[in-house]
Design goal:
Elements (H helix, E strand, L loop, with lengths): L1 H5 L2 H22 L15 E9 L2 E8 L7 E6 L2 E2 L2 E3 L9 E7 L8 E7 L4 E6 L10 H22 L3 H4 L4 H31 L8 H29 L4 H30 L7 H19 L9 H12 L1 H11 L3 H22 L13 H18 L5
Length: 392
């Protein structure tokens, strides 16, 4: 024992790790031969991660979500055999392959693609309505950015125009509005969880499903908590007045920004498959729905006088991610990434709600009192009603 105590700390850390690595390598190399012959058919679980349609061609991105290698032997579209090419042969575990099918598809028509593996297993993939995949380019990216500005930046900035009003109203009404902010953010968190769970449930599962939403939420919550502690330390060291309100508004903007990133992702992906009609009414609906987010950002600033530069920065932090999400969603949509991003938004929003609770307490120290309950319910109702206008 004395000899162990004299060893350097790095030796005590590396020795167990080396033994673990050696044991795992030995298990991988020799463990299989000690288990006898495998019985039963191979477990093949190929899944279609992405579908791209171009004139006369359907491209499928496959991922092997099962434990055994798999190889596509034949492909059928609506029960008709089609020629195809691949960028590789057998697909190993978690590996990906692209299949390019030579098929003269017709716009807006449904198709059922059936993949037959070398062992005779079949994997089906449904294309509900064939729509040409947009080609990434300057005009296309510009359109996605413009959509993000319409549904993200503009509504948030308009909502921030309530700041002069907030400076003149009674403190009791400020607490009501802070509670309304809690209701708004709570509704966004629940909405993101439902959407993230649905999207993650449709993923192949090779890289995770709903657990990615949970991982994203936990990671965002912990990261933003650490950021908040760091910002609080800097402000306290600097001794600046009004710092708490500025920090809280920044955290709200970050939380809303991460939510809008997921929202933009959904908009872009829906546009790419032709499932979203970009009409004036829909843009109006999104704008009205997101205007309340600007109010949530400036609510903590009622007793301060932030400059226009700070307000503009807060608006961009909250709204600009919608443009980024729209570009990603329309050009490289992935269910796992979407689930993770929505999870990040959930975690960020929950972290902000935790910070907002002390601001809605009344003089008796109660977080739940008639004014706060009314504000929370009003916030939920506002987003529910405006959300009915953006069902795509």
């Amino acid at each position: 024992m004395d000899a162990v105590r004299k060893l350097p700390t790095w030796v005590l850390a590396l020795a167990p790790l080396a033994l673990i690595v050696a044991a795992l390598v030995a298990l991988l190399a020799f463990g299989g031969s000690t288990l006898g012959e495998r019985t039963g058919p191979p477990a093949e679980e190929l899944a279609v991660e992405r579908t791209e349609l171009r004139p006369g061609e359907i491209t499928l991105t496959l991922r092997n979500a099962g434990p055994d290698p798999a190889e596509v032997a034949q492909v059928f579209v609506n029960d008709a055999y089609v020629d195809y090419s691949s960028d590789g042969g057998e697909v190993g575990r978690l590996g990906t392959r692209k299949l390019r099918l030579d098929y003269p598809w017709q716009a807006d028509s449904p198709y059922l693609v059936t993949l037959l593996t070398s062992t005779g297993a079949t994997i089906e993939h449904e294309i509900e309505a064939a729509v040409a995949t947009p080609e990434p380019g300057g005009g296309f990216i510009g359109l996605m950015v413009l959509i993000g500005i319409y549904v993200g930046v503009v509504p948030v900035v308009l909502g921030m125009l309530f700041l002069p009003l907030l400076r003149r109203i009674d403190p009791g009404w400020v607490r009501f509005l802070m509670a309304l902010t809690v209701g708004l953010l709570g509704f966004l968190a629940v909405d993101a969880w439902l959407e993230g769970s649905e999207i993650a449930g449709e993923s192949p599962g090779a890289l995770g499903g709903v657990e990615l939403v949970i991982i994203g939420a936990v990671a965002a919550y912990l990261a933003l908590t650490a950021l908040d502690r760091w910002l609080r330390g800097r402000r306290e060291a600097a001794g600046r007045s009004g710092a708490s309100a500025e920090r809280l508004s920044l955290m709200i903007a970050i939380g809303i920004g991460l939510h809008n990133l997921g929202e933009g992702l959904a908009i872009g992906s829906a546009y790419a498959v032709g499932a979203l009609a970009l009409g004036t009414f829909l843009i109006f609906g999104f704008a009205l729905h997101n205007t309340t987010e600007g109010l949530a950002i400036v609510a903590p600033l009622s007793d301060t006088r932030p400059g226009l530069g700070r307000l503009a920065a807060l608006g961009l932090i909250a709204g600009a991610p919608a443009s980024v999400g729209a570009v990603i969603g329309a050009s490289a949509y992935n269910a796992e990434v979407a689930g993770l991003l929505l999870g990040l938004g959930i975690g960020a929003i929950v972290q902000v709600i935790v910070q907002l609770v002390p601001t809605i307490r009344d003089t008796a120290g109660r977080a739940l009192h008639p004014a706060s309950v009314g504000g929370i319910l009003t916030g939920v109702a506002v987003l529910y009603v405006t959300g009915l206008l953006v069902a795509a």
